[in-house]
Amino acid sequence: MQLIDGKKIADDIKQEIAAEVEQMVANGQKRPHLAAILVGHDGGSETYVAHKVKACEQCGFKSTLIRFEDDVTEAALLETIEKLNNDTDIDGFIVQLPLPRHISEQKIIEAIDYRKDVDGFHPINVGRMSIGLPCFLSATPAGIMELLARYNIPTKGANCVVLGRSNIVGKPVSTLMMQKSNPGDATVTVCHSATKNLKEICAQADIIIAALGSPGFVTADMVKPGAIIIDVGTTRVPDATRKSGFRLRGDVDFENVAEKCSYITPVPGGVGPMTIVSLMKNTLLAGQHKIY
Ligand code: L34
What we know:
By secondary structure, the protein is α/β, with parallel strands linked by helices. It has 2 domains: about 90 residues, 3-Layer(aba) Sandwich (Rossmann fold), CATH 3.40.50.10860; about 140 residues, Rossmann fold (3-Layer(aba) Sandwich), CATH 3.40.50.720. It is about 40% helix and about 15% strand. The chain has a 6-stranded parallel sheet with strand order 1-11-8-7-5-6. β9 and β10 form a beta hairpin. The chain is globular, with a radius of gyration of 19 Å. The site of ligand L34 has 18 residues, from α2, β4 and α10.
């Protein structure tokens, strides 16, 4: 079994981006500028956004964090989005999800100028992705594709099972895996809560991409010997031995599955850091006005 080191790949890519940014600055161009809107104090969101701000620093980007309490109105958020859309110094921005229930995520996402939508969540970017046009690719799927590429993992003709059908991971990663490209060109099966014979379907898979947010869901009996396992889950589970009181657990029963598979992403240190770095890649593209 080989561990897929997302942290190391992400560090390499951040260095590549930083070098490109210094080149841009030397040529008299401005530093890319990312803004992030964070609503409330969800522990996961706080951590992820802090990682995004830090990654901007490492890439030589400017960053701005805009915070709201969780009683912020939808109107106030929309007004902020409008300002960011019109602010010529901001190249791209994100609204960290999830949002409080009284705010429509879809309305917020559609209010973002798609040319600044570095999360790749706007329907224009999703539509472009689905037909293979240049666009902002959403960060977690793009990060997974990058890991497969950098580890030279063959995907052409592979049976790929995606667990989960969310708009931010399951749907887009299944689209990318079936696209005629490398990585890609796989035969993709998407499983979800209504799927019958899920275990049997998984046991046929050459590649499993687990994105359900259900800790330890993928057990060794669901894994074909030599399969490739991509674990997208990062659920906080109670752990009294940690100072924080919790630890992160993926969707895969790592201990038992690791012995059986050929490649596996750890949690933490697998897909998570790649999500962050894919956002950085999109911000660089935005700063270079490559998506319009
Ligand atoms: N708008 N909302 C928007 N864009 C996104 O791209 C996200 N996502 C998901 C949740 N909501 C979002 C993220 O940023 C998930 N996500 C994310 C980002 C980073 C990490 C995990 C999920 C990450 O850095 N994970 C680390 C561990 C972090 C920790 O210590 O908690 C890892 O190594 O897996």
